Amino acid sequence: MQIGHGPPSRRQAMFGGHGEVLVWDLLAGQPAPPFTSVLSCVLEAGGHVGRHVQQRDSEIVIGLTGCGEATVDGRAQPFGPGTVVFLPFRSTLELRNERVDAPLRYLIVKATPAPAEPTPAPGS
User: Fold this and answer.
1) Local structure of residue 24 (DSSP, 8 states)
2) How many independent structural domains does the chain possess?
3) Smallest Cα–Cα separation from 59: which of 116, 3, 108?
4) What's this model's pTM, rounded to 2 decimal places?
């Protein structure tokens, strides 16, 4: 299964992990506010995307195929088909492909974080 158009961007050892990740930019630079990017990703068998901070956007990661583990803010959880992981702005993520014989496929949808709710003034 390939989700994406044209050749992917090939990334090695992302965020200090190991293995290759193929990445397709599904928006191809087209504006779609509040979404900043939609990425189709394939993490090679046994691969690992190292721990990293969501520095600009909030994000959801959606499992498509494979069997892995997503660690969000230090808490590990199973990750596979149908799993949706929410990553608020400034949270951390680490992904592992637990299979040594098959890739882990997933989508990443990034969006501009919603503005913080204003704190009501005392006596309001």
Assistant:
1) E
2) 1
3) 108
4) 0.84
- Show the beta-strand stretches assigned E in the chain: 9-12, 20-25, 35-43, 48-53, 58-65, 68-72, 75-79, 84-87, 92-97, 104-111
Do 66 and 102 contact (CB within 8 A), yes or no?
Answer: yes
Token pair listed for 96: 């592992």
- For residue 106, the one-letter residue type is Y
CATH of the domain at 72: 2.60.120.10
pLDDT tens digits for range 78-108: 999 999 999 998 999 999 999 999 999 999 9
- Pairing assessment for the beta strands 75-79 and 92-97 based on DSSP bridges: unpaired
pLDDT in tens, 20-53: 999 999 988 788 899 999 999 999 999 999 999 9
- Examine residue 31 and state whether it is found in any structural domain, yes or no: yes
Tell whether 117 is covered by a domain: no
